[in-house]
Specification:
The complex is a heterodimer of chains A (about 290) and B (about 280).
Chain A (H helix, E strand, L loop, with lengths): L1 H41 L8 H10 L1 H35 L1 H15 L7 H10 L5 E7 L2 H4 L9 E6 L1 H22 L4 H10 L3 H39 L3 H11 L3 H29 L7
Antiparallel strand pairs in A: 1-2
Helix pairs in contact in A: 2-11, 3-4, 3-7, 3-9, 3-10, 5-7, 7-9, 9-10, 9-11, 10-11
Chain B lengths: L2 H9 L7 E12 L8 E12 L3 E5 L6 H9 L6 E6 L2 E2 L10 E4 L11 H14 L7 H14 L15 H13 L5 E5 L7 H18 L2 E5 L3 H7 L2 E5 L6 E6 L14 H16 L2
Parallel strand pairs in B: 3-8, 3-9, 6-7, 7-8
Antiparallel strand pairs in B: 1-2, 1-4, 4-5, 9-10
The chains are: A mainly alpha (about 290), B alpha/beta (about 280).
């Protein structure tokens, strides 16, 4: 009897899981149908590629796409981590030191007002003129080398490096984290300040036990924005000045008017970004106290 | 406010009768800058609270009740005069932080910590600063005892937003009791609770006070609550706040729910109400 109700509960849960995903599946099917219909109306793979043609173009170069995707998302991961760490650390310092905040904020707001992409070439130049500026965190032989005979180990070697592309990605992603850290740290309610005074808490203790935690929900939601921004930053940098990564593959497809390949690459970037975003959200949920993220 | 003024009072401790909390000639003026308009919140406050005494302060809103409490807690600095706890100036370096527990009107439980970890927060800070000596294990055990004392056993690992307002306020009181301060400063701790919960927590507070023999300075705007709890009720005048009246509450202890229906309670309550009315 008990096992039956247990099985029943599991059945209900599974059914709920399936039904809640029905709209997503329908949306996917509708997307594919619309894509196919539009392609049939235009009927020109150079203006609007057929789904089947897109698939063929990408699968023909699956090894390259795979390596480049790994390359780009490695850069994105490094850029993202850099943005979060530097953003939080600098945010804490600026929030704590009043005079520093008075000096820094006008500069920050001014810098933030510059459209980001116009700065990408600057970052690239810094790191090309000065090759030693690239800091390789660690290298590994990409998985594709083991999967595909056509790729040499050297081609497939990936490195998690801080170069022009990653620094630019980090720069773009840095601002939301930095600004929300400052806002959150300064949002601590007065009674907690008073509690700190009564207990004789030092400034560092106030940060460690109160302010940082008060800022955490702000930081967590800004980190979600940083995911998107570091992806944009890295791919834009690859567009402009790199011969690496998936961004360069888009440039190649564009130069060759290869719309099928471009569509395929875009879809893969979308999927990669989605996975990356969901991973970060999951990590935030696991690592922060309940209620930090709604 | 220097150590020179604190010195003689410290020595007089040996003579026996020494106030636990003492305000002498205290003025508090806000906005002492030449540019600002100044507001005198408190004037000429002379007030002694003996060790183990329960004293309530009532007065019209804006009369400086909370200012008085914050002066005792060392959050605010008196413009004139001194505030001492156990004979030591609260503004001085000698002031022992572990002697004073402050209970706020709103819960100060941090929502990102569990109930038990919230209780241990003051301990972590005081211990790092060398204000208390016992081991963390000692305080962990004490936290469990306290949670039992305030009726929160089983909620150690709950987060504050999973608790009701009354329960959160119990956490806040336990947070002030964990390091066993000899003085409890309470700023309308039950002001935001419903009448039933308030009565219940009043009884509980008296039980804890009785068991722990603490000196309590209690701020409230509820005159019946003040009469019910206290040995002495201080009535402050409207701004600038001065000690306008002192009423001894000679109701027998321990006080129970029944105390409220005694003739003497009604008499004293009426008396405090009248004193209070004169201050309007």
């Amino acid at each position: 009897m008990a096992t039956k109700s247990h099985a029943h509960r599991r059945f209900v849960r599974t059914r709920h899981w399936v039904t809640s995903r029905v709209p997503t599946v329908i949306a996917g099917v509708v997307f594919l149908v619309l894509w196919q219909l539009t392609a049939m109306v235009i009927d020109n793979n150079r203006i609007f590629a057929y789904p089947e043609y897109t698939w063929r173009q990408v699968s023909e170069r699956s090894d390259t796409v795979f390596i480049r995707i790994v390359e780009t998302f490695s850069s994105i991961a490094v850029a993202f981590v850099l943005a979060v760490i530097v953003g939080v650390l600098l945010g804490v310092v600026i929030a704590e030191v009043y005079t520093l905040r008075q000096m820094a904020m006008p500069i920050v707001i001014f810098t933030y007002a510059i459209p980001h992409p116009i700065l990408a070439p600057v970052f690239i130049i810094w790191f090309i003129v000065n090759p030693g500026a690239e800091i390789v965190l660690f290298s590994f032989t990409g998985p594709s080398a083991y999967l595909l005979d056509s790729v040499t180990a050297a081609d497939a070697a990936q490195s998690f490096a801080i170069d022009g592309v990653t620094t630019f990605g980090a720069w773009v992603g840095f601002f939301p984290v930095f600004l929300s850290t400052i806002t959150g740290m300064n949002a601590l309610e007065e009674r907690f300040e008073q509690l700190g005074t009564v207990l004789g808490a030092t400034r560092w203790q106030m940060v460690r036990y109160f302010r940082f935690w008060r800022a955490l929900p702000n930081i967590a939601s800004s980190i979600k924005a940083t995911v998107q921004l570091s992806i944009i930053g890295v791919i834009v940098a690859e567009f402009i000045a790199s011969s690496e990564g998936i961004g360069y593959q888009i440039v190649l497809a564009w130069k060759g008017a290869d719309l099928g390949y471009m569509f395929g690459v875009l879809l893969i970037i979308m999927m990669g970004s989605y996975l990356f975003y969901q991973t970060v959200v999951w990590l935030l949920k696991v690592l922060t106290p309940p209620g930090t993220i709604e | 406010m220097s150590n020179e003024t604190a010195e003689p009072t410290t020595t007089s401790t040996d003579s026996g009768e020494e106030a636990m909390i003492s305000f002498s000639g205290v003025d508090k003026i806000y906005g002492t800058d030449a540019t600002e308009e100044t507001v005198t919140a408190l004037q000429d406050i002379d007030l002694d609270v003996d060790a183990g005494e329960f004293v309530s302060v009532v007065g019209p809103s804006g009369c400086g009740k909370t200012t008085l409490l914050h002066l005792a807690a060392g959050i605010l600095e008196p413009t004139d005069g001194t505030v001492t706890i156990d004979g030591i100036d609260v503004q001085g370096a000698e002031h022992d932080r572990s002697e004073v527990g402050l209970v706020f009107q709103q819960p100060v439980a941090l929502e990102w910590r569990t109930v038990k970890k919230n209780l241990l927060l003051p301990v972590q800070i005081l211990k790092q600063n060398g204000a208390i000596d016992e081991s963390m294990d000692y305080y962990r055990e004490r936290a469990d005892e306290l949670l039992e004392l305030v009726g929160l056993e089983g909620f150690e690992d709950a987060y504050p937003n999973e608790l009701s307002g009354g329960m959160q306020q119990r956490v806040t009181i336990s947070q002030a009791l964990i390091y066993d301060p000899s003085v409890l400063l309470m700023d309308e701790p039950f002001g935001s609770l419903d009448a039933m919960t308030k009565d219940e927590l009043n009884l509980e507070l008296l039980r804890i006070w009785d068991e722990t023999e603490k000196t309590v300075l209690f701020i409230t705007h509820d005159l019946n609550e003040a009469v019910f709890l206290s040995d002495r009720v201080i009535v402050l005048s409207p701004r600038p706040g001065r000690v306008a009246d002192e009423i001894e509450i000679d109701l027998p202890r321990p006080r129970t729910g029944e105390t409220r229906s005694r003739d003497r309670f009604v008499e004293l309550s009426t008396e405090v109400h009248q004193h209070f009315k004169h201050q309007r």
